[in-house]
What we know:
The complex is a heterodimer. By secondary structure, chain A is mainly alpha-helical.
Amino acid sequence: MLAITQRNLKLYFRNRASVLFSLMSALIVLGLYLVFLKNGMQKNWSHLPDAIQLLDPWLIGGMMSVTATTASLNAIEQLVRDRQGHQLQDFLVTPTKSAWIQLGYFLSAVLIAVIMQLAVLLVAAGYFSFADKIQIRLRTLPALIAIIFLNGLCATALNLVIISFVKKVTTLSIIGSIVGTASGFLAGIYIPIGTLPAFAQNLIKLYPGAYSASLFRRILMQPQIAVSFRHVKEGQLALFKKMLGIGYQWESMTTFTQEFIVLAAVTVIALVLVLAKNRWVNSRQA
Amino acid sequence: MIDVLKVQGLKKNYSHRQAVKGIDLTIKNGGSLIAFLGPNGAGKSTTIKMLTTLLKPTAGSIEINGQQLPEKIREQIAVVFQESVMDADLTVRKNLLVRWKLYRGQSKSSVSELIHQVHAQDFQNQKYGSLSGGQKRRVDIARALINQPKILFLDEPTTGLDIQTRSLIWQMLSLMRKKQGMTIFLTTHYLEEAEQADQVDIIDHGQIIAQGTAADLKKRFAKSQLTLFSDELAQLNQQLPKQFSRQLTDSKIVVRVDNTADAIHLLSDFADKIKNFEFRPGTIDDMFMALTGKEIR
C-alpha cells in the first residue's frame, strides 16, 4: 500500500502541471480578492475596527477549502490514468490485495490534499502578514491541522465518487475545470454568501466544501473577532458571521461541531457509495 | 507431479454474449513454451485475463502450480502486457523497486540482478519514458521476473519491435526457461515465434479448435503450396486433377497439395507443360488460415 502511495506522491510532485492546476482555483480566488473584492468588502465593513485583519483570514479559509477539492481531484486523476493505461492491472496481478492497492491511491490523494492545503496556508499567511500585518496564532495550529486532514479526507472521498463514473482522462480534465470553477462559488469564496439570492445560498448550504470553509474561517478569524467585536453592538457579530458564511442558517446557525459532523458524515457516506459501486461492478463481472 | 497449468471448463459470459465457451487446457511440464493463437475477437484476451486473475470466470476452474485462489496464483505468475505499463516519469530502477515492494520474500538485491539480467545497467537511472521501444520491453521483462514466476504470460510482447530486439528478448527468455524451468504462455502476431512452441493452442469463437505441437499442427492443417508456370496455363489448369484446390492468375497457377509426394506426382505427370515451378512447405500461417479462415490480427 505504501509503495503505491509513495509512487503516486512522487509522480504528482514531478508533474508541475498537476501541482499548478491544483493551486489554480486558490490563486484565482486570491487574485479576484486582491483586484476586485477586497476594496468593496473593506468599505462594507468599514465600521468595524481592523476590518482588513478580519477579511484576510476569511479569504485564507476559503482558499484552503477549495484547495483540498482541486488538489485531491488532480491527485486521484492518477487512478483514472492508471486504469486507462493498464498500470492498475500491473499492480493487480501482484499478490498485494486489491483493497490495499486502492487504499494506497486514496491515501496518496488525501496526503496530497493535506500538503497542498498546508502550502496554501503558508503562502497566503506569509503574504498577508507581510502586506496587511495579520497574525496567525500558533495555538490555532492543532485545530487547523485537524480540519486540514478532515477536509482532505472529505474532498478525496467525494472525488472518488466522481472518479468512479469516469473512464477517460480527457473527461476528467473537463470535470476538473468545472469542479475548480464551481467549488469556489459553491463554498461561498468568490462572493460572500450574504450578498447572494436565497437560491444560491441554499446551493451553498448543500455543498460540503462550504462547511470546511466555515470551519477554517472560525479557527483563523476567532482571535481577531474577539478583538474587533469587543466594543461593537450585540447582533452585529451574528450578522457579520451570517453575511460571510461563518456558520450557515439551518434551523439556527450551524455550530463548529455540526459542521465537523457534516464533513465526517459526508466522508463516510461517500466512501460507502464508492465501496457499494465497486461491489456492484465486481458482482456483474463474475 | 503437479501440472503447471490446468484449466477446466473455463467460461465467460458477458451480458449479451458468450466470450469464452468452455476451455480445457493443460500444461504438464515446466519450462515449456505455449503459443496461444487466435484471430481478433476470438476470446483470446478474455481467456488471458481470466488466467492472470484480472477477470473472474463465469464458470470453470483454473489451477496454476496447484494453486486455485487468485492471491496464491498471483504469486506464481507474471504478465508482460502488450502496452508499456511502467511510469514514464520514474527511472527504470525506481519503477522496478515500486513493483518489487508489492511482492513478498524477494530480496532487494534481486532488483539489481534483474537489471543485470536484461542488460539494463547502462540506462537504469534514466527515466523509463526516455527509453527506446526495445529498452522498455527489456525493463518490462525484468519487472515480470521479480517474483520468479512459474508461468510468464506474454501478451504480444514483440509487436512493433525491430528484429534484433526481438531475437535478444527471445534469447533472454529461453535462457530463463532452461535455467529456472519457467513456462512461457505467449500470444503473438508473429506466427514464426509460435513455430518454436512446444504446444500451440488455437482459439476461435471462444473455443479451442486445435491443439498440438507446431510441427504436428502444420502437418495436419497446413497444405503445401506448389506454384506452376506454363505457356499453356488455361489448358494445364483444366487437366489438373479436380481434388486439388488452386488459384489461376495471369502468369501462374497456385495449387495446394497435402505433401511432397503429391507435388512430385503432379510435376512428373505434367512435366511437358510446366516451364518452371516453386514449392513451399506449409507454414504456420497456412495452418492458421486453414483453421480460422482468417489471417491473424
